[in-house]
């Protein structure tokens, strides 16, 4: 069976079972970002800061987030972002999530042209049975 890390990243995908173990086996660095307590742009930027282990000098705006994700010095060439509780966040904040998706997908496309990979994986609580 084909695994998500065997293919080039494409958009926001559902996380496979045991994503942390799979990422390690495929030499993909994995960072977890929790959206369960994000209620506004400041909270979202704080979640990204924590999840990506950024310093307080992170600009906390869309351009700064794009720059951080596409920085060849600051990011590994194979990176996966595990977006935890993301679908609920999207339902609660459709405009904010649309802005975030634009930045994430732009970064993913840019990295692809540099032969680097950025997987965007959603992981929902076990009770969530919806599919993309």
From TrEMBL:
Q: Which residues form the Barstar (barnase inhibitor) domain?
A: 30-121
Which domain of life does the protein's organism represent? Answer: Bacteria
Pfam family example for this protein? Barstar
Regarding protein family, the annotation reads: Belongs to the barstar family.
Write down what this protein is called: Nuclease inhibitor
